Structure formats: structure tokens, C-alpha cells
């Protein structure tokens, strides 16, 4: 099933307000933008798939300015968008801005005004507490840090093969 708009959708509706200033080099006359999934479409692990590097370079002009707006979507996360943008830039050989990266946890940024000074226990893969702190939340700890304050709170601790906290002596 195809959906068609009666009139072209303005690009300003397709990108979050904070991204507009960052993508100011994009032609305002571009009739469309592109959203790429990262895992399994652009990259397999840290390796570009097929001609994805070449295809992305075609979205820029000879001076490095975007001709066609695009962003990356992933349900993954665990690292700040700024770090993911840096990694993608390095792997793909094109300049990727943090505002061009939308991860599974990115919508939490919109909750900053409401929960900025509330106590937050951040859970998830990677470094969720670091991500939340970068978003501007003030009172954030990781689940492991929270659990370390309670002896035997984690019934599966003996089966875990990872750690997110340095061992205390």
C-alpha cells in the first residue's frame, strides 16, 4: 500500500526543531529526505555493506554540503548521538552530525524539561547513564550503580559476564 500526500510535506516537519540549525546547508528546495536504518542496511557490525559509502557520498556536493537531507535510525543505542555520529563519519567517510542520528533512546531528550532534576536509574545496553547525563538530566545513575547499594538485590548477578562499574577495593 502506498501513501501519497496531496501536497509535498515541508522538510521542517520531517526533522526535529533542534536539527534545523545543524542542517542549514541542505537545499531548502529538496523535495524529500531519506531515513536509513543502520544495522543490516548501511553497516554489518562496523563494516559498510555493499556500496553504502559511495551511495552516501552522492548525497553531498563537491564542497561537502548536503544536497539531499538524510538521517540514520536505529533501535539500538547505549551511546550518545554525538559519539555515534563520530563513529559513522569515520566508518563511512562522510560528515555525519549528531542531529542526523536517531537512536532508540533519542526521544528521552524531549522529557528533559519535565524530569531534569528527578532521580533516574538508567537501564539498557552500553552506557545509558552517560547518555542521559549528556541529554541534560541531573540526577542519573546506572542500574549497576544503584544495585551496588543493596547487597544481594540482583538474583542473577552470578550469571552475568559483564560489568559496567569498576570494582571497589
Brief digest:
Helix content is 25%, strand content 13%. The protein contains seven helices and seven strands.
Which features does this protein show?
169 residues, alpha/beta, Rossmann fold, 2 domains, three-stranded parallel β-sheet, two-stranded antiparallel ribbon, 7 helices, 25% helix, elongated, disordered N terminus
CATH topology of the largest domain: Rossmann fold
- Give the class-level CATH name of the largest domain: Alpha Beta
Uncertain runs: 1-22
Which whole number gives the mean pLDDT?
A: 82
β-strand amount: 5-15%
Spatial shape: elongated
Number of strands: 7
Largest sheet: 3 strands, parallel
Written overview of the protein:
Pfam families: Hydrolase_6. InterPro entries: HAD-like_sf, HAD-SF_hydro_IIA, HAD-SF_hydro_IIA_CECR5, HAD_sf. This protein is α/β, with parallel strands linked by helices and 169 residues long. The protein has two domains: 11-102, HAD superfamily/HAD-like (Rossmann fold, 3-Layer(aba) Sandwich); 107-159, no CATH class. The chain is built from seven helices and seven strands; from the N terminus they run ααβββαβαβαβαβα. The protein has a three-stranded parallel beta sheet. Strands 2-3 form a two-stranded antiparallel ribbon. It has a two-stranded parallel ribbon with strand order 6-7. 15% of the residues are buried.
Write the layout of secondary structure elements.
Blueprint: H1 11-14, H2 17-20, E1 34-37, E2 43-44, E3 47-48, H3 52-57, E4 70-73, H4 81-92, E5 101-102, H5 112-115, E6 119-122, H6 128-135, E7 139-142, H7 143-147
Amino acid at each position: 500500500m502506498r501513501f501519497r500526500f496531496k501536497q509535498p510535506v515541508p522538510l521542517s516537519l520531517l526533522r526535529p526543531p533542534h536539527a534545523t540549525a545543524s542542517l542549514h546547508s541542505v537545499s531548502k528546495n529538496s523535495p524529500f529526505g531519506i531515513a536509513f536504518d543502520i544495522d543490516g542496511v548501511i553497516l554489518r557490525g562496523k563494516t559498510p555493506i555493499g556500496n553504502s559509502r559511495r551511495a552516501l557520498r552522492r548525497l553531498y556536493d563537491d564542497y561537502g554540503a548536503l544536497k539531499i537531507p538524510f538521517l540514520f535510525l536505529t533501535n539500538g543505542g547505549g551511546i550518545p548521538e554525538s559519539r555515534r555520529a563520530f563513529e559513522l563519519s569515520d566508518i563511512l567517510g562522510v560528515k555525519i552530525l549528531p542531529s542526523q542520528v536517531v537512536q532508540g533512546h533519542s526521544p528521552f531528550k524531549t522529557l528533559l524539561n519535565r524530569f531534569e532534576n528527578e532521580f533516574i536509574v538508567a537501564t539498557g545496553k552500553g552506557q545509558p547513564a552517560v547518555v542521559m547525563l549528556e541529554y541534560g538530566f541531573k540526577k542519573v545513575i546506572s542500574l549497576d550503580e544503584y544495585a551496588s547499594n543493596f547487597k544481594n538485590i540482583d538474583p542473577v548477578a552470578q550469571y552475568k559476564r559483564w560489568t559496567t562499574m569498576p570494582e571497589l577495593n
